[in-house]
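Working notes for the structural subgroup meeting. M.R. asked for a predicted model of this chain before we commit to crystallization trials. I am recording the input and output together here so anyone reviewing the notebook later can reproduce the run.

Input as submitted:
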Amino acid sequence: MNKLVDILWKTGRWLWDNKERAVLGVMAIILLYRVYVVIDPPAEETVPPPPPPQAEGQVDVPEPPADPPEPAAPAYDPDELVGQNPFWANPR
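Returned structure, recorded in token form:
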């Protein structure tokens, strides 16, 4: 047990004395892993599409909806909504 504590103490002391190197090593490992993922991406799992439904006998196809009715003409004259601009020189 004393030997294990001694190894942990020495490892902790080395990490404390070499913090920068330890951080650099961790960053290098992360960078190498990311480069590995880019170079050798994992295979994508493809799911086959479901089979089309099997129709038995005659299939009823619904009729397309009827065209909407034409809109009614407005009950007012649109020119009545336009007011006279007071800055116009020639009135209408």
